Amino acid sequence: MDTFTLKVVATNRVFYDGPCQMLVIPAIDGEKGIMAHHEDMVIAVEIGELRLQKPDGEWLHAVVSRGFAQVSHNRVTMLVLSAERPEEIDVRRAEEAKERAQEQLRQKQSLEEYHISQASLARAMARLKEASKFRPRV
Which range is the signal sequence, renumbered to this chain (predicted)? Predict the structure, then answer.
């Protein structure tokens, strides 16, 4: 299967840099799938699950924050605020962030503060959802 070059850059690190067979990005209007030789475009990335398939067939899962992805000449560059694998997620910290965001949403806020709280809640929920998929059940 053909591959394309993928680079996922978060604010604190280069999350992935290498060949990719298929990429699934969380976008405003749903998930976008990208394969080799995809048409050129720019995609607004939303908070959610990122999935990429390496050339050996292995799937890599991650939670990403908002950002952008540029598809151009069989190359994809993603710039996001954060990207983390499920095993990197601190579930306790994500639960606390969720509770903080929910409390902030219950309080009277300006429109800007409301949107920030809403984004914090969405990020915490995405992290918890992804972490629960890959944690062993007891």
Answer: none
Query: Average pLDDT of 12-33?
Result: 95
What is the spatial distance between Cα 47 and Cα 108, in angstroms, rounded to a whole number? 24
Average of per-residue pLDDT values in the chain:
88
The CB density around residue 128, as the number of other CB atoms within 10 Å, is 16
H or E element at residue 115: helix 111-134
DSSP string over 13-42: SEEEEEEESEEEEEETTEEEEEETTPPPEE
CA 34 to chain centre: 15
Q: Which CATH number does the domain 4-84 belong to among 3.40.50.300, 2.60.15.10, 2.60.40.1570, 1.10.3720.10?
A: 2.60.15.10
